[in-house]
UniProtKB/TrEMBL annotation:
A Pfam family per the record: Bac_luciferase
Source taxon at top rank: Bacteria
Keywords, in A-Z order: Flavoprotein, FMN, Monooxygenase, Oxidoreductase
Gene3D superfamilies: Luciferase-like domain
Protein name from the UniProt record: Dimethyl sulfone monooxygenase SfnG
Annotated Luciferase-like domain residues: 11-333
Entry keyword annotation includes Flavoprotein: yes
Gene Ontology BP annotations: alkanesulfonate catabolic process
Record-level Gene Ontology MF annotations: alkanesulfonate monooxygenase activity
Length: 369
């Protein structure tokens, strides 16, 4: 599971559109739906077009272009039961979940799906979702300290009996979960993802997670994060894999792809983007070194609300494939893709882009021998 050893093949995931509004906050046409029937067909299409993972989003309150949402863990289980190979990553919030309760749900979901359930720990960026529910809103680094304990506790419950844990946020006393998930030597527990950009997020990823998920970044941004993540992981005798968010616009010509990006931004829902910007930029700027998520995002970046345009997976299939392999060369293990029209574009990606990625990977392996 090392970010220091480049894998033979990069993996692909897609954002599950389980919230309304698609993956861009824009009035451009998006032939994408948040409803169950659409998402079942999409999941089946994705697993037949080279996608190994799907990430279900977590939003609780109607807001900022996402008026309607399906809950992430239950929706993930529904998609797991409708597919054969696809792995579902359910985004969850410490502070709104107790780790033992989630561990129980996750063990059941993992067994029912034959070992395909995992979680992405989101440490909290939308203050109103906590305060409107009467839950405590912690300072940035405290939220990540809580997430670190959350990751430790849930891994212990999934892999050990008679668990005792004495933390600042969680107290577990002689607790045993049975049945446990379908743990194997290759996957000793359902995979644990830590999302974020900040120094605290990188520390959690290196110390506690199996995977680190980054917002959209260019080559320099990925290199900086990987260097930090690897340093932390080495200090704790661990190995962690790296996933990168990117909004993919692959078209037959570069001009068509760039025109699509231009139209998305020109038709941005400005009040929704500005509202989102105001809600989230405090999360990044609250960090001491200003490296948190969205701390330096522009208006254009936030039209894709996880900075997906920054990764620049935009152009012809050849250009997109070459850039993906360049990220892999840096140490990226997985690309998490968002799309404008999910169903047809995931099919296009599987037909036009993925074969080129595999050809480039194979050529580099031959050249390295």
């Amino acid at each position: 599971m090392s970010t220091e050893k480049i894998a033979d093949q990069i993996k692909f995931a897609y954002w599950v559109p389980n919230v309304s509004g698609g993956l861009v906050t824009s009035d451009i046409e998006q032939r994408t739906s948040w409803d169950y029937e659409y998402n079942v067909k999409l999941a089946q299409t994705a697993e037949n077009n080279g996608f190994e993972y799907a990430l279900s989003q977590v939003r609780y309150e109607a807001s900022y272009g996402a008026e309607f949402q399906h809950e992430s863990t239950s929706f993930s289980l529904a998609l797991l039961l409708a597919t054969q190979k696809l792995k579902l990553i359910a985004a969850v919030h410490p502070g709104l979940w107790h780790p033992a309760v989630l561990a129980k749900f996750g063990a059941t979901a993992d067994i029912l799906s034959g070992g395909r359930f995992s979680i992405n720990v989101v440490s909290g960026w939308f203050k109103d979702e906590f305060t409107h529910l009467g839950e405590q809103w912690l300072e940035h680094d405290e939220r990540y300290r809580r997430s670190g304990e959350f990751l430790e506790v849930i891994r212990k419950i999934w892999t050990e009996d008679d668990v005792d844990y004495r933390g600042d946020f969680y107290r577990i006393h002689d607790f045993t979960l049975k049945p446990k998930p379908l743990n194997t030597p290759e996957r000793p527990n359902p995979e644990l993802f830590q999302g974020g950009n900040s120094t605290a997020a990188r520390s959690n990823g290196g110390r506690f997670a199996d995977w680190y998920f980054s917002n959209g970044k260019d080559f320099d941004g990925v290199t900086e994060q990987l260097d930090d993540l690897r340093s932390v992981a080495r200090a704790h005798d661990r190995e962690v894999r790296f996933g990168l968010n990117g909004f993919i616009i692959a078209r037959d010509t570069e001009a068509e792809a760039r025109d699509t990006l231009r139209e998305i931004i020109e038709k941005a829902n400005r009040p929704a983007v500005e509202g989102f910007r105001g809600a989230v930029q405090q999360a990044g700027s609250a960090t001491g070194d200003k490296k948190g998520m969205w701390a330096d995002s522009s208006f254009e970046d936030l039209v894709q609300y996880n900075d997906g345009f920054r990764t620049q997976l935009i152009g012809t299939p050849e250009q997109v494939a070459e850039r993906i392999v360049a990220y892999k060369r840096l140490g990226v293990d997985l690309v998490l893709g968002g799309f404008l029209h999910f169903q047809e574009e995931i099919e296009y990606f599987g037909e036009k882009v993925l074969p080129l990625v595999r050809e480039l990977e194979a050529a580099e392996q031959v050249a390295a021998v």
